[in-house]
Amino acid sequence: MWEWQGWWKQECQGYVSAGVSARVMWSARAYYQPAERHPHNTKYPPSTYLGDPAHSPYVAAPGANSSYATPYLEAYNLMEENADVIFESEVMMSERMYNSEAIPSDVHQPRPASQLPGPRSWPMVGCLPYMLTHKAFDPQRVYLFWEAVRQEFGPIFRKDMPGHPYLVFITQPEDLETLMRSTMYNPLRPGMASLKRIRSDGGADGDDHVHDHFFQGKAGILAEQGQEWWRVRRCVQRPVTNPQIVHRYLPQMDDVAKQFVDRIRRMRDDNDEVPESFNSELYKWALESLGTIALDRRLGCLEEDVSPSSRPMRLIQLAKQLLGALHETENVKLWQYFPTASIRRLQEAHQVFTDVALGAIRDTERLLACRPIRGHTLSNTHAHPFASSCPFHQNLQPSEIASSGTEAPSLLETLLATPGLSREDVLTFLIDMIATGIDTTSHAVGNMLYLLARNPRAQREVQREIDQVVGSPDRLTPDHLSGLTYTKAVFRETLRMMPVNVGIVRRLNRDTVLGGYLVPKGWEVVAPTMLMNHQESVFPRAHEFLPERFLRGSHLAPRHNFAFLPFSYGPRMCIGRRIAYQEIFSLIVRVLSVMEVDYKYEDVHLVNKLSYGPSSSLRFTFTDRR
Ligand code: HEM
């Protein structure tokens, strides 16, 4: 136990010495105002309080609609913007160091986990028979089954699945807050164990593979836990979430968005309708847009004549295959006992994806290497006279070398120069960014367009705001995007109604009281997004699309600050969220400033793979605005 304390303390001290932490903590404390310590709670300070919400030391101001004294929106913004840098001062850190004992049971007298309600479980097969024979069970829409179980067993239930450790589902924001706080200093996220197996634990079959040498026993932040996760996360955290660095890529992302608008114009038919393949077009946009920052160059995905065998198209195909295979291996974990067909498929998809992604990254590295003047990024070498004499440049299409004109070091250069990160660490991180960053943003933007098409009033309001705040400039600036308050509310309401992330999952590293039960260390806890986001008791008029709920002072705001966490919370929250915001907002602004979107087909719902995606093709109609 002291080892954990040791490394967290050491790491966090270095990390938080920056002045920002003091500012963030100061503001965070202003938002989370402890009233007084619970009389029994001498061991755990209020900020690590793990108890029954009814005894929570955090109080709401009289009349407030959330459990906190501060208006919802301010508190939410603070959590989303800064939560990952709340590593706090040295004093706070040592004050909050926890040990792995259970919380004293005399505080709440929680019931034992053996009394947790849930579907009947059989030896070896758990509750599989119950699930497979349940009328609400649909493997494509597993959230319908979870909702049925919640209705039958209540807001917290246990679900035993073969190959999984004990699983507890929570659906109340108070419990999610407890979970996030309980796991704050060592956020173990299960769910990528098969990726870790093929990257670092001897592959599907325990044989020696070429890729094992590349990954050198390290699986990257998606799949790693504990010290190894933190070693990489603390180094990549700042460059990837630093607004200045992300903003630097806005001109390129804006170019990609404008090119996508041209592409929509070209692919529309006589009725202004886009083809069935529009979902794939969104994938191309997502890779092209992410490529500007992850690979510091344009890949050419949006060119007219891009070949299916080209590297970017293969990357998209392979990312889909990889995520599909991961979905299988994480659902049915028989590969833990013997090499199954699914883990072999995962290994194959992963190998090819890694090869292709590495090829793309190495192209970028070579372009950087033959860049003649230090301080000029790859992006502007196209315009540089030396570029044409570089043999490597000559082999690339002009569309692959782009045009930002920015002079600062690129993200890749910054990461490669970061002490503590090896070249393999950086490449693994970029591979993970590409694997996770394509389907999330493409689904989010597709869902947002869909909900706007279905809610013309909201669409008109977004357009009015874009006209007023942005106008039609040649270049989008960060100020343009940050001024889009209503559009941001629409984005959040989209992620509430049609989330991308299936759930927040943590393995408990100490016994924790959830919903009045003492859930033991080592158990896994799932907070399923669809169930959390659609509760009438938490979100007034939960089944209606009402972006207003995310505007300042709204009476429709969620009743608890942890009710809505699309990017999660704390040190393990989504590292790509600033990138996602910037990409998605650039596209929405460019599309809706010149077009209206409509959708004339059956309702779209979400289907689950590793993340949620739309159930059918998004055949929008894009009409030019007059
Ligand atoms: C709308 C878009 C997105 C949503 C809703 C989203 C949501 C999430 C969520 C909920 C997590 C899990 C956090 C946790 O376990 O606490 C996560 C992790 C992650 N996301 Fe995102 N994400 C999005 C876009 C992106 C993009 C564009 C990138 C890449 C640039 C990215 C990269 C990652 C990575 C690498 C992790 C793992 C972080 C870690 O374990 O330390 N995400 N994301």
UniProtKB/TrEMBL annotation:
Q: Which residues form a coiled coil?
A: none
Lineage, top-rank taxon, reads: Eukaryota
Matching Pfam families: p450 (PF00067)
Which InterPro entries would you find in this protein's record?
CYP11_CYP27_families, Cyt_P450, Cyt_P450_CS, Cyt_P450_E_grp-I, Cyt_P450_sf
Record keywords, A-Z = Heme, Iron, Metal-binding, Monooxygenase, Oxidoreductase
Q: Which cofactor does it need?
A: heme
Q: Is Metal-binding found in the keyword set?
A: yes
Q: Which PROSITE patterns match?
A: CYTOCHROME_P450
Residues reported in the UniProt entry to bind heme:
C574
Presence of the UniProt keyword GTP-binding in the record: no
**CDD domains given in the database record:** CYP24A1-like (cd11054)
A Gene Ontology molecular function term for this protein is: oxidoreductase activity, acting on paired donors, with incorporation or reduction of molecular oxygen
Q: Do you know which PANTHER family this protein is assigned to?
A: CYTOCHROME P450
Family membership: Belongs to the cytochrome P450 family.
What is the official name of this protein in its record? Cytochrome P450 49a1-like 2
Which gene is this protein's source? Cyp49a1-L2
